[in-house]
Amino acid sequence: MSGQLQIRRLVKSFGGVQAIKGIDLTFAQGELIGLIGPNGSGKTTLLNIIGGYYNATSGDVLLDGQRCDGKSPVQLARAGIGRSFQVTKVFKRLTLMENMLVGALAVPGTSRKAAEERARAVLETLLLTRLADQPASSLSGGQAKLLEFGRIMMLSPRVVLLDEPFGGVHPDLKRFMYDKIREWNASGVTIILVSHDMGSIFGLCRRVVALSYGEIIADGLPEAVKADPAVLEAYLGD
Ligand code: ADP
User: Which GO terms of the molecular function aspect are on file (predicted)?
Assistant: First the structure.
């Protein structure tokens, strides 16, 4: 398993607006990177391109040296790129177990028994076992985010993109999510974390990349990025 992500001269335009203006970035396998920047700086657009939800206008993204462009989110998920959403995407009327199996069973050659075993093991690590047969509508917002983590884990990703995973989550559950993110990362998964919650970003990540108007304005250790004049200026008035 590897999980190196390379972004080369990436540009994304929406009509006349250039949301990403020629970004170069390399994430080594096993890095845990915080992606910050004021509203509208291009964070979600970048995740959407890496996850295959948007096509880039130009430039490319490579996962372990393989070009990702033109692949759908489902193809990329199977290739090893997992993605969570700001607004959680779980199937509310399905049970937790059914939610866990949706993506996994769609992978050719997966047996139901093996998928269920894996789902049980993952639900166990997320402390959701006792809710496995409940509909996902019974979950709190934070638990739904945990279930989304679980669904991503089912496909054994090499790279995970987390978009605002802590929004509206109770502090206790947030700490539990930190532990899960750290465990995931310790097992070698490359993680890119977008969050407005600076405490979480600076507490979890050893590398922070700051965007402003679609460009990288700082990239390095959290302490250095936090004190960078360009970053302080970008956040003024945000
Ligand atoms: P962030 O996640 O940092 O808040 P976004 O990636 O959402 O920033 O947005 C970056 C820029 O791209 C903004 O100017 C935004 O208005 C624009 N943008 C994002 N998505 C779209 C879209 N689907 N259509 C048009 N413009 C978009």
Answer: ATP binding
Residue 7, phi then psi, degrees to nearest 5: -120, 125
Helix axes 141-154, 112-125, angle to 10 degrees: 140
- Could you list the residue range(s) of the whole structural domain that residue 151 is in? 5-235
Main-chain dihedrals φ then ψ at residue 232, nearest 5 degrees: -60, -40
Q: What is the CA(221)–ligand 1 centre distance, in A?
A: 26
Stated pTM of the model: 0.93
89 alpha carbon – ligand 1 mean position (Å):
20
For residues 228 and 198, is the Cβ–Cβ distance under 8 A? no
144-168 pLDDT tens trace: 999 999 999 998 999 999 999 998 8
44 C-alpha to ligand 1 centroid (Å): 7
Q: How many other C-beta atoms are found inside a 10 Å radius of the C-beta of residue 189?
A: 24
Ligand 1 atom closest to the Cα of residue 46 is: 6
pLDDT score of 38: 95
- pLDDT lower than 50: segments of the chain: none
- The DSSP output letter for 197 is -
Say how many domains are in the chain: 1
The answer for residues whose C-beta is within 8 angstroms of residue 53's C-beta and 6 or more apart is: 73, 83
Here the ipTM equals 0.97
- Distance CA(17)–CA(207), nearest Å, equals 28
- Looking at residue 55, the DSSP 8-state letter turns out to be -
* pLDDT of 87: 67
Mutation probe of ligand 1 site: the residue of 45, 50, 194 with most atoms within 8 A of C-beta: 45
Output the residue whose Cα is nearest ligand 1's atom 6. 42
